[in-house]
Structures are given as C-alpha cells and as structure tokens.
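Student: I would love a firmer grasp of how sequence relates to backbone shape in proteins. Thank you; the sequence and its tokens follow:
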Amino acid sequence: MKLVFQAFIGSIAIHIFYLVGMMLVGYIKTRNYKPDIASAWDKVETLQNEVVFGKANSPFLYLFTFVGVTVICGIIIFSYKKLFNLRFLS
C-alpha cells in the first residue's frame, strides 16, 4: 500500500510540474509578445478572411494520464527498491 501511495504522490507531482510549466511558458510568451501594428494594416483583407479551428481535449484525458503516470511511477519505485535491496544483500 505504501508503494501505491508513493506512486500516487509522484504522479501528482509530475502533473503539477507539467501544468505549472505550461502556464509559465504561456505567461512568458504573452509577456514577450510585441504586435506589429504597422504591418498589420497592409494585410487587412487577409486577416478578416482567416478562421482558426481548434480542438479541445476531454477532461477524462487527464484521468487516463494520471493513472498511467501512477503505474509508471509505481514500476520505477518498485524497480528501484528491488535493485537497491539486492545491491546491499550481495
């Protein structure tokens, strides 16, 4: 049960690190964005005709990644403990 809890905590830490990193990258890009207003006036017609299509992921994707990362963390912790114990028993 301790292994499952450690894998759970590891998965939470990895997901928090990922989300904070993505927000930090977005903040830095937003902060450093400098629009070129002078050249935008030259392309008024093309700008009005452009449409951007996006895709939103389901929130269940994070549930699947959370479970997957928990399993991977559990395997890594289990393997590390086995290798660490075998090294000192020999």
